[in-house]
């Protein structure tokens, strides 16, 4: 066991990913505190990441040859995405059974939905590369569906009528990241069925579907590789800059916000691991290590921006929500390196 922990803590790739995320978040915090970048700049960074870099990251993660095992894993992660959110709905009610009224709804929504896109995906990309990114984007399909349906209904108090359903479905399927994910996923799934193009790779002629632009149109694909490379550093800079803007002293004294943050960043990922371990060992829903690790990092992400926006927009514990958002982000930044190390130890023990 000690040897496993030692090999994990000396893994240069893991150490590099952990240090990079912490260092760039700290840099973003410093730049904002020193007014080198202003609040407008940090908001622009966020928009660039969400509308350009993360869609490029999502799309390019599917630019690979289809593999039977990866296809099975992707399908299992898609199923697990829907299952875990369905499971968390009653579990969150049990966790917060002593909390009454509107605050319980706020607690539950903020606990179920984390910042998987903006916080989780860049970390997954840095640690687990293209395969982890692919699983993360497949997992996020279910996340988006529940975020714009269940979370909206709970926070707004409204019933999902035809007009609301139409509006929220647009939010789901017209989101740049979801569009890039669906397009990339379809190309990946049907690449062998589409018209083939002969491409010379390392002196050998190979056949690729014409939409596999990484091979058929490399000059068109190249800009996407630059954009995807920006996703993690820009997201981390933005997180640091955002942390620098929030009055930490007022939030730090709110004990229930601290309690929520520990539940969100520690307990929910543990529940995810335990359930997946049971399903994996019983053969009901077998998942590979990278798939499991991806879901853990996504579940350990802090409060989702959209969920927090719902609470503030509909005046549902707005101050409490703001404090939860801040403290959960701080806890997640501290806990994420620990989670990465724990996951690597699990990998080295061959549990998954």
Secondary-structure element series: HHHHHHHHEEHHHHHHH
CATH architecture: Up-down Bundle
In the CATH hierarchy, the third-tier topology is known as Na+/H+ antiporter like fold
End-to-end span in angstroms? Answer: 16 Å
**Which structural class best describes the helix and strand composition?**
mainly alpha
Radius of gyration: 20 Å
Shape, principal axes of CA atoms: globular
Spans with pLDDT under 50 lasting ≥5 residues? none
What fraction, in percent, of the residue positions are helical?
Answer: over 70%
Strand content: under 5%
Domain count: the total is 1
Highest CATH level, the class = Mainly Alpha
Q: What do the pLDDT scores average to?
A: 90
Number of β-strand runs: 2
What attributes characterize this protein structure?
352 residues; mainly alpha; Na+/H+ antiporter like fold; two-stranded antiparallel sheet; globular
């Amino acid at each position: 066991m000690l040897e496993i922990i030692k090999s994990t803590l000396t893994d240069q790739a893991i150490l590099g990913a952990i240090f990079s995320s912490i260092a760039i978040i700290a840099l973003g915090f410093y730049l904002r505190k020193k007014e080198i970048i202003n609040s407008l700049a940090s908001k622009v960074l966020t928009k660039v990441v969400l509308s350009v870099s993360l869609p490029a990251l999502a799309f390019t993660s599917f630019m690979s040859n289809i593999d039977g095992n990866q296809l099975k894993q992707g399908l299992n992660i898609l199923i697990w995405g829907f299952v875990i959110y369905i499971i968390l709905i009653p579990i969150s009610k049990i966790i917060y059974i002593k909390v009454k009224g509107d605050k319980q709804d706020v607690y539950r929504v903020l606990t179920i939905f984390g910042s998987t896109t903006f916080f989780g995906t860049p970390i997954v990309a840095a640690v687990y590369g293209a395969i982890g990114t692919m699983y993360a984007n497949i997992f996020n399909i279910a996340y988006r569906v529940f975020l714009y349906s269940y979370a909206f209904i709970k926070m707004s108090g409204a019933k999902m009528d035809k007009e609301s359903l139409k509006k929220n479905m647009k939010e789901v399927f017209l989101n740049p990241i979801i569009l890039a994910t669906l397009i990339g996923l379809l190309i990946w799934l049907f690449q062998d069925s589409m018209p083939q193009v002969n491409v010379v790779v390392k002196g050998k002629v190979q056949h690729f579907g014409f939409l596999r632009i990484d091979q058929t149109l490399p000059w068109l694909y190249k800009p996407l590789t630059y954009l995807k490379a920006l996703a993690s550093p820009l997201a981390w800079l933005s997180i640091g800059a955002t942390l620098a803007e929030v009055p930490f002293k007022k939030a730090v004294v709110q004990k229930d916000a601290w309690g929520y943050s520990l539940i969100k960043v520690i307990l929910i990922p543990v529940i995810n691991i335990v359930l997946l371990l049971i399903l994996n060992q019983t053969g009901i829903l077998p998942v590979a290590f990278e798939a499991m690790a991806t879901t853990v990092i996504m579940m350990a992400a802090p409060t989702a921006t959209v969920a927090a926006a719902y609470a503030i927009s509909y005046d549902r514990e707005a101050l409490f929500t703001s404090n939860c958002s801040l403290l959960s982000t701080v806890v997640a930044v501290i806990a994420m390196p620990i989670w990465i190390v724990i996951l690597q130890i699990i990998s080295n023990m061959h549990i998954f």
